[in-house]
Amino acid sequence: MDGSTRSPGCGTVVAERPPLAYPAALQALAGCFANVVRLLGQRRLHLPRGRVGMRLRFTDGTSARVYRETVVDRGPTLDPCVLIVEFRLRAVRGRGHAAFRVESMLNTPLFAGFPGFVSKLWLAHDERGRYRGVYEWDGPRRAENYARALWRVLALVSVRGSIHYVVLPGLDRDMLLVRPGTLAGKAEDEAAWWRLAQAA
Questions:
Q1: CA distance 135 to 69
Q2: Residue 18, Cα to own-chain centre: how many angstroms?
Q3: Residue 98 parent element (H or E)
Q4: Taken in order 152, 154, 159, 161, is the CA torsion positive or negative?
Q5: CA neighbor of 176 nearest in space, from 162, 186, 166
Q6: Model confidence over 159-171: pLDDT tens digits?
Q7: Cβ atoms of 138 and 77 closer than 8 Å
């Protein structure tokens, strides 16, 4: 995507921008790690099981299963948005995907302490070998800042050119799961990798 587009029900779809400069990304990730330590000490991070096993189908013809959910105890979300991130890991095939799903728990300090984080659904690889994360965030700008910092980490292990993200302001994650038609919009986006078709 090269620019913002309109999508009825969720306002402006925020197009991706380049990753943060390395110093800014490292500073943001260090702050996130420190916040995760604090959240763990306060027992404010949780792994609910209710949505584990749910399959999300996308309008590009792919689907993926939710294998983990992470949520944080926090106050009310004032400016909800959905963030969807995708990437494809280098040299991971067959049983390597199962190993990654187990290991990925260690990646929690890379996101859960960012300002505005609400929740994340971890999706297993789809039929094209791509992973997605479906997040709810409080504040589109905060969500974008996270995605641009995360990019620097993902680039170390991902196929070049496979990292993408989209921010959907004015939409909370549960609304998206219950009413994926909320994302109905421009014809050129109808088969977008991020556009949810069904959650079951």
A1: 10
A2: 16
A3: helix 95-103
A4: negative
A5: 166
A6: 999 999 999 999 9
A7: yes
